[in-house]
Amino acid sequence: MDQFDDIVQRIKEANDIADVGVELGLKFERESGKWRRVPHAGGLVVNVGRQRFFSATDGVNGDVIELVRWKKGWEFRTTAEWLARRANIELPNWGRMDDAALKVHRLKVSVFEIAQQVFHAWLWKDPEALAYLHGRGFMDDLISAAGMGFSGRRSKEQVAEMKGQFDLFGIDIRSPLGVTIFGYEGDIKAWAEKWNVDMKDEDFNPDWVEKGRMHGMMATPGIVYAHTWAGQVIYLSRRQLPGFDRIGDRDWKSFNPQAIFAGRRQAYFNSVYKGDAEQCVIVEGPADAESFAMWGISSVALCGVNADDEGMGNLRMRLKRHKKVYVALDRDKAGDAKRERVAAVFGAKTRVVEFSDQLSVMHSTPSAVSDQKLSVGSEASDGEA
To answer: Residues 312-337: what's their mean pLDDT?
Structure first.
């Protein structure tokens, strides 16, 4: 796992851009809503939902780190340390991590954003992939808002198109980040030596060497979900299309890029998510989260993040402004095993729900109201969420 990348992500997750803006002296016209404007500040606007800011007069925009750098005039490391202390995050040993490492972090974001744009365009050209999403009840406007994509069928034309986009930005498709999208076949040991990949890293799978192959997002036809934060695509995940979701006699429904290249798994925030919404629903997968988007409800998909993962602690900080958090995991062995543990992470404001003919609270954590209904404004069936 890239330590620098993880530090940057944790800092962003722990510092709400509107709260930081107030601490920096910004006086917003109002204290709620998706958009926060600062009167007489040259058109400075903060988008709370996307955790981004924009100043029309100065032509400056970016995330919470860029906001502090701009307002304080600091270099990156000073900014990051200030934000880390503000959020009570323990600073690890930075070592040689500096602006050069920041460029690597931005490169990863660029790779995912480049790939996502191509995947999104491919979705509209593949009738089977589009029919799958329509069958889940997703309309075209929601598909567009969520930036859903299709990983393609690895045709020569598709490989050439994606490679052309990478070439345009000077990114080698054989690089570790390129492999998360294209995959790689060949001598893995020689490849690792060339790209300075530590084969002793705990996230390096020795099976890659034996098989001579590393999987990529384009290897199997599936729906690609863009995980965004602070207005950037920070991660991609794939849900295999029916017919491509088994390996031998076992299920293989989803794929997350290799942690050693892409960093730890990231939660998925749905297309209508608002950090200051009264309620938020925690689910298993991105499609579940977007089902709630159809009702205008903020939802977050864990995507494999477990209760004892570092990412769960960061998620708790990101959801701290919600008055109610509902944990609605799948009714299967995996969901049953972690439902209560996930709920415990968020404390007394959490309610545990299960799907039936009507989405209602079945039981709750201590000091919560056990018979309170989740206000979805509609009914949800097992097939929809």
So the answer is: 82
